[in-house]
Every structure is written in C-alpha cells, then in structure tokens.
Amino acid sequence: MTTGISAADRARTVQVAVAKDSRPTDLVQPGHIFPLQAVDGGVLMRAGHTEAGCDLAAMAGCSPSSVICEIMKDDGTMARLPDLQLFAAEHGLKIGTIADLIEYRSRNESLVERMGSRELRTAHGDFTVHAFRDKPSQSVHLALVKGQWQADAEVPVRVHEPLSVLDALELQRSMHSWSLDNSLQYLHKQGQGVAVLLNCGESAAQLLAQFEGSARPSQAPERGRMDLRTYGIGAQILRLCGVHKMKLMGNPRRMPSMTGYGLEITGYIPKE
Q1: Which of 4, 147, 171, 217 lies 20 to 30 angstroms, CA to CA, from 118?
Q2: Residue 128's beta-bridge partner residues?
Q3: pLDDT tens across 11-70, in order?
Q4: Which residues of the chain have a pLDDT value below 70?
C-alpha cells in the first residue's frame, strides 16, 4: 500500500511519467511510484505485466501506458492466480492472463517475418535453413530445420541464445548447456528437429569477453541469467517452423505463457 502521498499527487505523478516529453529528471527516484518501461513489441516480445498493461491500453485506442499493481493477501504475501480467481469471484471481476493476451495478438499479428529459405550443408548433415527478421530490432535470426513431422509430434528443439561467432568456431564450448555443434549433431541423429539461432547483436566488448573466457575457461565471464520472459521471438519462429509440441534441449526451467503461442513443452533433453 502506498502511504504518505495523496491520490491527487499520485495521479499527477503518473501523468508526468507517461507524458511523451517527460525525462528521468522530472521524477523523484526512488519515490512512491516506480516508473517502468515496456519493451517494443509488448507481450509478443516479453511476457511481462508491464508490457501487458501497455498492450491493453493501446488495443483500447489509448496511449500505450498503464498503472499496474500487485494484490496482496491478508498475510502480506502476493496473491497468485488461485487467490486472484477467488478475489475476482467475490467482487464480480474478470480475469485475463498474459497467455490470453499473447494468444489474441498472435492470431492478428506477428513480430517476425520469413526472409528466405535454402538448403544448408553443415559438418553435421544437411538442414533447411530459414532466415527471419524481427520487426522491433530488425535483427536477423536463423532456424535450422531437420526432417518433417506430424502436427502432434514431440519435436526436439534447441533455442541457442546468445549466439556468438565463437559458437561456430570452438568445439565443446562451455557457455551453453548444449553447444552448437552438439545440438546439430543430435538433431541430425534424431532425423528431425529445429535449432533456432537468435541473433542478439553481439557487441565488440561481449565478443572480447567471450574470447578471453574461452582462452582461459577458469576465468570465463559469468553469463547473465537470461530473462525467460523474453522468448517471444524464438517462440514465434518455432511456430512458423511448424512446431506445436516440443522437447527442449537444455535444463528444465519455467517458461511462462507458452500456451499463448500455441506451443507445448512436453519435456527436456539434458546434454548427453
């Protein structure tokens, strides 16, 4: 609960925060209200509450801005979905999930477009490679597809991110649970599957850090923990490749709102 500030003051603070010409210096930070910035592309890019609030406002024809808050239980902990369902029933409210919003937007738009396809011969066999461009960043990503499958088949999938030029040069890299060469080798052996190579715009500093870490594994830079809500581009690419059910090549992890993309994770494949 916000204390020490009137409703009028809170309203004025929100108006300043969402104004098109506002600057960080216009707000006292930290303050009673915390300004957040949604990523371009909304929930199709990042499955977050910030993006969901702005998407809903934009879809209603309003300024793409919103005020979000958490509902707390009597014991001071945050209410989860089962708690919110009870709260909504008690007060006659409707509930919409981020997955619902993703599903709606996915039926009407996409953040990725296929730029071209061709056959690609690799050291681990032949693949069909598709090039995709994402609209928010204009980055080009690749999807290497092996074989064909039925719509209800469980397809092995590897989403490789972040992608470095060193992934193509150095064997058995320890930067990922599955190296690029091991991933392609496994998919070729299975006879079907998809490897999505996400281009995250590797900077000179990032490449140098990975170069030095590869030369001295014991001093390799610690990888930042990936925000698992930012998988929207990879999910849309997988859907365009005909994937519905998939087994992810990697360690088990919580992947929220995947159902919004029409994707189902049926299991995980640990590194052999």
Answers
A1: 171
A2: 119, 145
A3: 777 777 777 788 877 777 777 778 888 988 999 988 899 999 999 999 999 989 998 988
A4: 1-5, 7, 9-10, 162-176, 200-204, 206-230, 256, 272
Q: Which residues contact 32 (CB under 8 A, 6 or more apart)?
A: 2, 3, 4, 5, 10, 13
Asked if omega into 30 is within 30° of 0 (cis), the reply is: yes
Q: What is the pTM of this model?
A: 0.76
- Reduced to 3 states (helix: H, G, I; strand: E, B; else coil), residue 106 is helix
Q: Are strands 193-197 and 140-146 parallel, antiparallel or unpaired?
A: antiparallel
Domains of the chain as residue ranges with CATH? 7-107 (3.90.870.10), 112-269 (3.40.50.10990)
What are residue 112's DSSP bridge partners?
A: 134
In whole angstroms, what is the distance from residue 145 CA to residue 127 CA?
Answer: 6
Nearest alpha carbon to residue 235 among 211, 257, 207: 257
Query: Three-state SS across 199-256?
Result: CCCCCHHHHHHHHHHHHCHHHCCCCCCCCCCCCHHHHHHHHHCCCCEEEEECCCCCCC
* 3-class DSSP assignment, residue 43: helix
Q: Is 126 helix (H, G, I), strand (E, B) or coil?
A: strand
